[in-house]
Amino acid sequence: MLVNLLIPLTLAAASLARPRPFTSSCDISNAQINLPTTSPTLAPPTSHPSFIALSIGTQNYTCTSAGTYANIGAVAELFDLSCLYKTKFQEAAYTLWKAAPAYVTPQMIIDLLHDSNSPNILGQHYIIKNPITGIGGVPKWDFSSQGEHNPDAWVLAAPAAGMPAPTGTQDVPWIALNNIQGALADQVYRVDTKGGQPANTTCTPGSPVITVRYSAKYWLFGGSIKQ
Which positions make up the signal peptide (predicted)? Predict the structure, then answer.
C-alpha cells in the first residue's frame, strides 16, 4: 500500500525536486551526539558540531572471490537535520525510501515530507580514490555545490573507530572518522543508521555490484566551514 501511495506522490514531487542552500535557523553549537555509554563505545568528539546531516542513499557491495559481500562505499544525498535531529523525521524518510520505486530520488522523499521545517540539501556523500596513497577509496562529504558554492566545503575522512549498530545487524555500523583532507570538518560521526546491509551473507563471485538503501545521521565537528 505504501508503494501505491508513493507512485502518484512522487510524480508530483519530481517537479519540486531542487537544490537548496545550506542555511539553518537552528543553533547546533551545543548539540550533544548520543553515543553508547557501554562497551563497545565511540570516543566523544573533540569540538562542537558544525553540521548534522541526514543521509538518504545506498550502501554498495561487490562480491569477493571468497563469495562474501565487501562494502565499496556509499552514495547519498545529505540534508540539513539541525532543526530536526531530535524528531522522528529520519524514521519517516527511511520508511518512504525503503519502500519507494527505483525511480524515486532522495530529494523526492524529502519533498514528500515537505513542510515549513523540511530540511535543505547540504551536499553529497560518496567515495573517491585515496588522493594520498592512490590506492583504495576514501569517503568524501561534499557541500561545494550548495550554499555559496564554496570550493573548500568538503572533507575526506578515514575511519578511526567503529561499533555494530545497537539496533541490529540489518543496519550498517556506527563509525567515527578523522579528517585527512579538506576544510569542512575535523571529525565525522555516522550514527543512528538504518538499513544498508545486504540481505544475504554469501554471493557468487563475479556477480554485479548490489546497492542497499540506507539512512544515517552524519555529525560533522570542527572545520572552518559553518552554516
Answer: 1-17
